[in-house]
Structures are given as C-alpha cells and as structure tokens.
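Tutorial, part two.
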Amino acid sequence: MPPRAAPGRGNALPARGALRGAGRGGPAARGAAALRAAHIRTIGVKRDGDVGYGRAGRVIPVQVNAFNATIPNSTIHHYDVVITPDNLPARVNHQIFKTLQFDVAPEIFTPQAVYDGRKNVFSSRKLDLGAEDMQEFDVSLPQDGVPGPNSSRPPKVYKARLTLVATINPEVLQRFVNGQQSHDEEATTAITACNVALRMSPSLRLTFNSRSFFSPALGRGELDLNCGISYRPGPERALVNVDIATGMMYKSGPLMELCLDVCIDSLRLPPRANINRHPNMLSYEGGLKDEYRIPLARFVKGIQVIVEGGARRVIRGLSNRGAHKITFENNGTQMTIAQYFRQKRGRPLQYPEVICAEVGRNVLVPLEVCMVPPGQIARKQPPPHKMKDVIDYAKKRPDDRFTIIHQGVQHLEYEQSEYIRSFGIKVDTQPGPLRVEGRLLEPPKLTYAKGASVTVDQRKGAWNMAQKKVYAPCRIIKNWAIVNYEKGNMFNVDIAKRMTQDLISEAQNMGISFENKRPFIRNLNGSSAKMVVEQLSLLTRELYPTKEVRPDLLVVVLPDGGDELYAAVKHFGDIAGGVTTQCIKSRNCSKTNPQFWANVLLKINVKLGGINWIPTSIPGASKLDDATNPTIIMGADAIHPAPGADGRPSFTALVSSVDKNCVRYVATNSVQEGRLEIIEDLKKMVIHCLRKWVDYRQHKEQQRLLKPRRLIFFRDGVSEGQFTQVLDHELRLIKEALVDLGMQECKVTFVVVGKRHHIRFNPVSDGDKDMSGNAFAGLVVDKGIGHPVEFDFYLQSQGGLLGTSRSSHYNVLYDDNKFTADALQTLAFSLCHIYARATRSVSIPAPVYYADIVCSRAKTHFDPTGDAFFSDSGTVSSQGAAAQLVLFKDNFKPLSAFAQNRMYFS
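Running the prediction step on this input gives:
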C-alpha cells in the first residue's frame, strides 16, 4: 500500500481541523531522507533532516527505560465492540470477552483476538462473523462470582456485538517509524492495536489499572510493582516503554481487620479501654463517633467484598449503628440483623455491636461476615500512615529503578504471550534497557548587580549567591508591618525582634533597603478566612488611612496547618487589599540561618518590582535581549477539578514577560467549564499581556513605539491526543490577538511542555552521575527515543534530589521563528534558571512554573467574606452544570489592578 500523498505545510495559519506542522525551510541539501519525508503531514513541526537534532553540549551515553520491538508482520483487523449493558467496568468487560473467546465461540476466535476493555478488538486473522462482518453473541457470567449450581443467583446474560470497521496493513507502521508515513488515523490505530496486544496477556493474569499492571511477586506488602507498558514508535524502530510507579491495594482478608487498621493507624481512633485493637472499637459505644466513621466510610467505599456464602458485593457505605440495633422486616416479623444471623442463619455474631457495611440499596451485612479478596487497587489518596511507604517506594535511585524495570519486563513474559506472537511482534529484552545518546548542555552565566556573575554548579543545578547583591533591588521598603496569627509562645516579642533584625540584615547584604527598622507588630486571632480578610483590610486602613500612603509590605506569620488562613491572606493580597503580602510559618521565624531569609527576600524583591538576576546567553541560544528581535515569553496552564468533584470549574492562567531580559512577568487568569483543556479566554488574556508588555517597555525601559517581533508560547498540561485541538483553537486565538493589536508581524513559536510521561534516563558512566545517581542538570535527549518525524526533545534541566529525576518533554507544534534544535533547547534550559524563588534550576521553564502557581491561586479568587467561597472541601449547589458554571463565573474575582502589574505569585 503506497503512502498517502499530502501537500506540504508552510507557516501560514492552518485551516481548522487540519493536521499541520509549520515547515522549517532551509537548504535542499538534506539528503534522500528529507526528500522522502517531503510529503509527510504532521501534527507538530516536522524535523527537517539534521536540523531537528541538536549538537551543543558534551555527549554522554544514557540508558532509557525502553526495549527494542519489531513491527507486526500480519494484517490487523479492527472490530468495534458494543457490550450491553454499557458502562461496565473494564474488569467485567474483560471477563465477558474472555468467556466469549474461550467458551462461547472458540472456533471463531482462533487464534485469540485482543481487547482493550472498552470498544476495540484487534485480530491478526479476519473473524468469521458472516457476510456482513457483524455478529452478536450472548455471554453468561455468574452474578455473585460463584459459577455453576453453587451460585446463589442465576447467571446474568450480556450481549456483545462485533463489527469489522477497518483492515490495516502493518507496513504503515514501518513507514511511520522510517519517516515515510503521516501521523494519520491509520498509523494511530496500528499503534493502538500493538499496545492492546502487548497488554492483553498481563491484563488477564495480573491486577491492572489502565496501562499498568501490579505483580505481588515483584512488590512488597501492599505496594506492588506498577509496570506501565506502552508500544511506541521511535526513529527508525519501534519501542516498548516500561516504567514503575507506586500503587496501593486494599489489604486482603477480613474486612474487620482492614477497618481496624485504618481507624488505629490513619484516623487515630482513641483506643479507650480497648488497648489491644478489639473489634468493638468499630462500634459507637467503643468510640467510633461520626468524626471517625465518616472518613472510614469514604475509605472503604467501592471495595469489593465476598460475603459469607460466596456472593460478591461492593461496599456503598457504613451504618451508624451496630447489627444489634438495626431492624428490618423478615417475613412479616421485625428483627435486628444480629437476631437474623442467630435465628435464621444459625450463626450468632461474635461482635453484634459493630457497625455494618451497606452492600446494596438498603442491604446491610455485618463486617465480620465480609472478606476482602486480593488484588484490588485503591483508586484514592493513600492514608497518612501509608504515605511514607509510598514515598519510599517511589524515590528509587535510577540504578535501582532500572533493575526493577528489567525484572518487571521478564515477569510480563512477552516470549510466552500467544497474543503478541499472533501479531508477529517480538520484544528484545535480553540486552537490557536501550542505550541512546544524550548531551549535557552548558548552564547559563547568571548576572547580579554591577555585572557580577555566578557560575552554576552543573552537578547540582544550583548556585550560591553569597556576597552578591540582586540585579535590581525593589524600591526602598518604607511602610511595612508584621501580622501574627500564631498563638502562645511560638511567636513572642523576642522572636519578632530577632526575625526583624535577621530579615533587615540579610536584605542589606542583598542590596534591598528597609527604611523602617522597627515595623508595627499586631497579634490577631483569625478563626476563619472571612475574619482574616476583614482583619487585614481593617488593619491596613488603620495604619495607613490616606490613599497617598500605602503599606509596601505585610509579613504575615501563620501557624502550622493554617491552610485556610493562608488562602485568605492570598485573597487579600491578590484581590481585595492591593498590598504585597509575604507569609512565613511561625516555626521558621526563630531561624537565624541567613540562607532562609535570603530565600524569603528573593520572593519579596520580585513581588515589589525588583529583579533577582538575569541569565547571560548560552552559546547557541537565541538572545532574549536581542534589540532587533524584541521577544515576549508566555507560559499557559489549565488545572481541573479532582476526579469525582462534579460541578466544579477548571482554572486557566497565562503568565507573560514584560522586560527585555524576560525575567519579569505579569499574570492573568480565568475560570471556565470543568475539565475543558482548551483555554477559552486565551485571546483576551493574550491581549491583556501584550498591552502590559508594551506599557512596561515604554514606561520602565523607555522603549517607544515598540512591538514584539517574537512570541514564544510554552503550554503546559496538554496530552498528545489534544495537540491538534490545541493548535486549532489556541494558536488561532494568539494570532487573532496579535492582529487586533496591529502586531501581526510578530512570529509565533508554540511549544507544549509535558511531564506526564514515563520516559526515564540513567547515565551509563558513574562520572556523569550526581549524588542522587541522576544525570547532571542540562541533560537533553533528542535522538533514538523521540518522535520519528516531529520536532521534540527531552530536557532534564533540574539537579537530582530524591529518586529518579523526570525530564520534561518538549513538543514544538508551531514555529514561525524557525529555531534550530540547539537554539530552542538552550533557550528552554536558560528559562529554567530564572525562577525567582530559588537559586537552582527548575524542571520546566519559569513562566510555565509560574502559570501553574497562578492556576492554583485562582481557587482563592472567590470572596471569603460572602456566601460564595468555594473551598476544595466545600459543596456545590444542586443546580445543573450550566447554572453552576454561571455561578462560579459571576463570583470569580479578577486580580486587583495592583496585582496585575506585579509578580504576586512568586
């Protein structure tokens, strides 16, 4: 089958719904590969021969958690599956399809097909489904998990209808990895088929969660190996990516024991007289009041249990009374659950006072008759007493992680999988993880006051600013006050004096001036967010009654656990007060460590208009302060409500540079429909930021009639499946904003920065590893593991601390500026060094980091002094989704004019 012909793409704005990649241009001497790829259409920017690969930096070999695989050698037949009733769990769907293949119609499914648990079946042989390539089957499953005559209920019959929808030549995958095939629907379906084939065997043998598999043989206790596997195309080859993460399973065995563990270890239920964890602790009389029972019910909700007799049920909740007090009608007679088990079942309860589990509508059973079967994944936050185990398991050094990955691959038994063999796929695990070429980029020089420079320690990705003054200090801090919300002696007069002296002393060392050496100190008692905002507003008016004299800074001292107070202070500073605030935990106020106060002052300086440092251009990077190409950097993000938080909105943010060195930023944010990834108000937000850029350059830097020539847009949080959608909408909105402001000549580069991937790197040589076993900051990998055709790269810009460092994955979706790989990679690395809060490089460019912070702070933009303060734990109205969204939008408070011009988020 010949490759599909498609016209090439230039840099003109693409039509809606089209796949595109802004062409990179350049001389014709790209060799035969460039000619072969000329017809290829891509979603993002196309690599143009060697131009898509960088050369800067010292080359080092690194392992990557991937293994070579072959392309299927048989035709792939794709079937649509409809199982009735729909919306069944994937686990049940897999049981239905397994029964269909092995028991209902084994003559049709030879060799066995593979199934994704939802809508897709793939087969290496065309299934005999009749003349219309469609057939419906009846599949019976026992309702209570007990097959045959011992079942308490008759089996349930499901219908499964299969319809042939496509036939795919596997050659499309070979052309795709060779750069000769567009990333179209046919290539995507072929990759999906390979992934389903890869996961079919372990999904039948192991506990699974989406693409991850849990194996007790490789884990320890309740923390099992989470083997996330995926089949992915790479340059000139196919790869299987294998990674580990952490997972929590419910402890198998008696439900009573699990509930006792949670109450004692996590909820800290007072043992009272029951020192030896007696089951009666799970009764109201034994101390299980609602403050413990309700979180326990949340924890066990959704657990599948086996009730005495073999029936499988799912827990819906917990009763608030014991079995000896819950009555129901049995054949016209009122009796308690305890009486029923004694009289009707001949099985007196050992602990009749203990609460019951609700396992159906108005169906309650005692905890002691329930068993938790093994292999159930807990799809919720681990309890506090298990968090240390989760963290310890997650922070494995690269060498340990890669050893476990190699063991996990062996346990997945690729060689024995008949599903993989039927597709003709082979996974070569014998040589161990794949080795690719990485490069260590040179970090930028950082400039402080009077041209003093600092060299970044590449091993740590950090630097020391001792004896250095900030590049541009904020204005002299004249009017400031300390507001204390801590109680008792954690913050007394002596601590306040010492804190003031240490703060002012370190500020002087950094070139920051406090005119008033004796600030006003006020002790307040804030029992609610509403009270805090009112108190701070009143205090500001009391101290500074005239508009001509406003406080420069409020330092707010908070107790441990004061999250609600902290949110209220942010609301006051960002929305209501028009005052810069800086929060400090009371336990840190007595610290005499100059480094701590230096870190606090880094935040204060930029909040008040100062600049901490600027990066000096790295060789090969594009100069940010190029006067002939005025540049604006933007970072955008969207955050969404937690799973199950229905009716809540998503928050979006745009952060944008305003100065010539791209180190000062302003922000704007918005609220929109929940879980909508596209930023609806992006055009308005871009216009706002462009105007701020012009205003700052004119009034602060005295640059008249200036327009940006380059706009570099970093977008966070977009999955690969959303790339086309983002380009169709967000790129268009950016272009429209530029046109509306007469800046249509500004060239746009659109880059997605992602961290939700499973690629990890491990340096081969010990000399290339830092103290944590990770590569030095600045590792970039763009060969051997990236996209076959599109311009992407992995950049590990931060120093290693704990565990295996995760690089950021950069996908260049659009590029009017025609950056080379070296220019864009070194530019991104440089931007990772301007995060104003810390003297170390961070994992993503600073504007993207800032956008994430702004998104999180957007939750505090609802007025806590009114009735529409929506906290994470609050409830939403019972109105429809549209009405709820209107309510959120109407009550969302925009940033104050004061905050709009400041780095309030630092």
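The CA atoms of residues 65 and 402 lie 7 Å apart. In part three we will examine how such features are distributed along the chain.
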